[in-house]
UniProtKB/TrEMBL annotation:
Descriptive protein name: Pentatricopeptide repeat-containing protein At3g62470, mitochondrial-like
NCBIfam families linked to this entry: PPR
UniProt similarity note: Belongs to the PPR family. P subfamily.
UniProtKB keywords: Repeat
GO MF annotations, alphabetized: mRNA binding
Taxonomic lineage of the native organism: Eukaryota, Viridiplantae, Streptophyta, Embryophyta, Tracheophyta
Origin species: Momordica charantia
Gene: LOC111023327
A Pfam entry, by short name: PPR_2
PANTHER family: ATPASE EXPRESSION PROTEIN 3, OS08G0290000 PROTEIN
Top-level taxonomic group: Eukaryota
PPR repeats: 230-264, 333-367, 368-402, 403-437, 438-472, 473-507, 508-542, 543-577
Database matches in InterPro entries: PPR_rpt, TPR-like_helical_dom_sf
Amino acid sequence: MSLSLTLRRASNFSAFLRSQLKSPGYTARISNAGSSAIHGCRIRRSLGREGRSFGRQMRVPRCSSLPLSRMFDSHPPGCFNSSHCQIPSVLPHASSFSVPQESMLIVPKSRTINSRNPPFPNFDLLARGFCHLNNEDSDCYSDSEIECGKSEDDDRECGSRVDSTEVDRVCKVIDELFALDRNMEAVLDESSFKLSHDLVLEVLGRFKQARKPAFRFFCWAAQKPGFAHDSTTYNVMMTILGKTKQFETMVSLLEEMAEKELLTMETFTICFKAFAAAKERKKAVGIFELMKKYKYKVGVETINCLLDSLGREKLGKEAQTLFEKLRGRFTPNLKTYTVLLNGWCRVRNLMEAGKIWNLMIDEGFKPDIVAHNTMLEGLLRCKKRSDAIKLFEVMKAKGPSPDVKSYTILIRDFCKQAKMKEAIEYFDEMQGAGCRADAGIYTCLITGFGNQKRMDMVYGLLKEMKTNSCPPDGKSYNALIKLMTSRRMPDDAVRIYKKMVESSIEPTIHTYNMMMKSYFQTRNYEMGAAIWEEMKQKGCCPDDNSYTVFIGGLISQGRCGEAGKYLEEMIEKGMKAPQLDYNKFAADFSRVGRPDILEELAQKMKFSGKFEASNVIARWAEMMRKRVKRRNPTNINGGHDHWPYST
């Protein structure tokens, strides 16, 4: 049942990297220094008349100083006891892969460079700043996503030049045949569609959460006569592999791109981000050696991108250590210090953030609005609200003048603390200062009032947005949908979703997951399933959370046969098995006398790394097998010839 109808009714990466790929992931332990108050200006020790230290002051360049309380010396960042990574110049293919379809491609060589991906793109890391507003626990968002790459929500691009009907047809073939014994590639060969780079990009976008079918389609396309992957399609595939930590395959693709002269700076950036997200600092640094091998300049912007990737993954200490090691090989700029500042603020280490601020000034750089916003958010992360407000007042008095991002950072914190009076006061002040409100700051206020069940204010703000020609964006709609689903009002959430679609704003996977979960929580299983179908019809690839919510909803209905089908599908696509009540799941299967199904699932769970779940299901399978055998020795399968997918 479609949602639309229902709604109408209601060898050597070298030896080093190869060995690292097989070793346990490096996990940094960052020590958060205590309770120093930093106002984001030059820090110095002040002595009283008797020569005693009574505190520290921070001197804003070309402005007066502010008192600093409880400052104390901290230890310098710790050093790593690892040797320098000597990476050979050649990247051999991995000797073997656990998954057959992830063996590397053998395709005709192409020497053309894709014009859409110039070798040296302009890394504008600080164009919109580093002070994110989309924290893990945040309900409102900033438009400052990762500048040396794209955010998760940006992966779905608008304005496709491919016929959506053809994309749907290709995706349907992959979806229906990938997990079966039938030859998916043979059916694709017989399909009459024109293979193009844009089509490949659209299909990979549909399966960006499912690496196995994505990679299998990628390999099939590479072997088609008259078609050769370009830099863009390679980079998209590498992004998918990197996000799922398929590092050997990712590195082998990089080597293949080098052989075809298709490498771009974005390729290396993807590797930086993938290794940083996995907290693999050494492997990320190893990419520098590959860049040298392939004659790519390792300049300040490249290093900034790596430092930023580490900082965003809360590896501020590692970013600082790398900066110290590379400092003699490049000339840092203002962006470099802002990246480091952001890294320390993200791990709530104001002591080290203050040192970076001082170093920035000592090197002759004047902190700009981005640096001030970064420090402002860092203070709020550390619950230093009074110091954050002092810094904000200094910015108003001495510069740089707060921008809409500065006000958003402060207002968001007030909203999280349910201090809506103060939030509105700063909002009015911002408008009085000539700063035009954007959708992000309205979203913060809407979320704040919504959490206090002040729906009159929510509707008033929405009306004001329309009056001020500031329509809600995708994140505004998601915040509204989350507000409705948290109040167990899924029908209202769907009405907002319809308005979102009517406004030509593309829903994200998060949009569907929230609505689906809300319907299952209110035991409206029909609509929960309709959301799942709508998501797939819209070409939005289900992710791990989607499957977890949907499988949980099926189990709660007692439809464990169908739940098992989707659990198997999820694992076959290369996703991790979800966190479920496997004791209940296995017990329901056992009641229908199918322990063989449990054994099959247990094996797949084991191969996917879900050992605990695998053991639970295997134990239930063995218990049920003995029970059924005692009852009916001639038919240990309990008389069932087929797996009961439906009740």
